[in-house]
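Comment thread on ticket #2218

A.B. wrote:
> Attaching the input chain for the structure job we discussed in standup.
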Amino acid sequence: MSMIDKIDWEKMNNLIPVVTQDSNTNEVLMLAYMNKEALELTLNTKIAHYFSRSKQRIWKKGETSGHIQNVKEILLDCDNDTVLLKVEQIGVACHTGRKSCFFTNLETNEEVSEVKIDTTSAYGVIDTLYHTIYERKNANPKESYTAKLLKGKENSMLKKVVEEAGEFTFAVKDNDEEEIVYEAADLMYHCLVAMASKNINPDRVKQELARRFGISGIEEKNSRKED
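C.D. wrote:
> Ran it. Output below, let me know if you need it in another format.
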């Protein structure tokens, strides 16, 4: 019986936790999840692949940043429901530019490791902004406008989306290029806040746009009616 077959995928709702560790230093780099396909890809390619719950798809670690993980060893725990990956980390493991995703002391709230790489250009402004917004969920609403939106009443947050959409519409109507750009940025930010409140990564919007690429608008609307 193969290692994959030892795992009770049904019991684990088809996702198993994966602890990823630096093969040289034994430092824990991150915790992620794999479905069966991701584990098979990892075994076959010797490059770490995970299943992203926020993106709802297979995710090759480093596919955007180039910070891939070369797998040196794969271990299954005694209960056959958790995997330990020992990897050679190229670059950094964390999207913040730190080597490890574990860098905040829970008792003191102190960041115990420094940013090693500026990942903004690698991930793009939309993804970086979304991650920043997501992290504001735990911020003080008195100190962060984003936290105030996220922790306030949902209707208040959604009214801002409608308000910004209206202002964008008027900017287009007035043919004011600077205002169009300014209001589009406001609208995009507030849409990302609303998405973060529902844990929806913008990558899923990109996937949907990619699905529609090459399909006429009429065909796309008809397909939704059939569903």
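A.B. wrote:
> Thanks. Noting for the ticket: DSSP finds nine helices and six strands in the chain.
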